[in-house]
Amino acid sequence: MSPAVKRQYRSELRSAQARTTRRLIVEAANRLFTQQGFGATTIDAVANEAGVSRKTVFTAVGGKTEMLKLAIDWAIAGDDEPVALQERPEVSRLLAVDDPGALLTGWATVLVDIDERVAPLWQALDIAAEVDPQARELHQKLGDQRLHSARTIVNRLVELGALRSGLSPKAAADIAWLGSDPVLYHRLVRERRWPVRRFESWLARYLAGELIG
Predict the structure, then answer these.
(1) pLDDT tens for residues 120-161?
(2) Alpha helices of 51-96 — where are they, by DSSP H?
(3) What's the pLDDT tens digit per position in 123-133?
(4) What is the structure's pLDDT at 168?
(5) The pTM is what?
(6) Which of 44, 75, 176, 210 could be cross-linked to 118 through a Cys-Cys bond (beta carbons 3.0 to 4.6 Å apart)?
(7) Are residues 185 and 212 located together in one domain of the fold?
(8) Same domain, 186 and 120
(9) How open is the CA angle 167-173-175, to the nearest 5 degrees?
(10) CATH of the domain at 179
(11) Residue 86: other Cβ atoms inside 10 A
(12) 175 Rama sector, left if φ>0, alpha if ψ -120 to 50, beta otherwise
C-alpha cells in the first residue's frame, strides 16, 4: 500500500470515527432533552450518557444548543446525512405531483413522518425558547425553515392553478406553515391520544380544505 493510500485510509478512518462519536453524543442528547428537558440537561450528563469526555462533547458537537439543533435536524431528515430535506428523492417526487389533492395528502404524510420523530424535541425547544436566548434564536430559525417549506408547497399549488379562490399566496403560506407545526401533532397525538393515522387524515383534510377548498 502506497503512502498516499495509507494517508487516505487513515483520514477516512478518522472521519468515520468522528462521525460515530458525533452520532453517539447527539443521540444521547436527544434522549436526555426529551426525558428531562433542555434546561435540566447538562453537558456532563450528555457526556456520561454517550460514554465520552466533556471535552469530546464540545469538540465533536459543541454546546447544548448545537446538540439540540443537530438532534432536530436529524429527526427532520430521518438520518445524519448532509442532504437537505427538499433535495431528497421523496420530496422531489412529491413536488412533481400534478394533482393538488394528492400533493397535499402526500405532504401531510411527510409531515406526520417527521412529527413522529421530532415532536418530543420540538416540545423541549418550545419550553427552552421561553427562557434561553440561544434556544429562542434556534426556534426562530427553524420556524423560518418551516415557512420556506410551506411556501414551496404553496408555490406548487399556484403553478397548478389550484390555490383556493380569494386566498393570497402569503396567507396560504401562513396556513401551510401552521399545518406543519409539530405542536399540532404533540397536542392531538401525544396529549389527546389520537391514533397517528387519524391525525394524518385530519391534517390532509385541513390542508386541502384551507388551501384548495
Answers:
(1) 999 999 999 999 999 999 999 999 999 999 999 999 999 999
(2) 54-60, 64-77, 89-95
(3) 999 999 999 99
(4) 98
(5) 0.88
(6) 75
(7) yes
(8) yes
(9) 80
(10) 1.10.357
(11) 13
(12) alpha
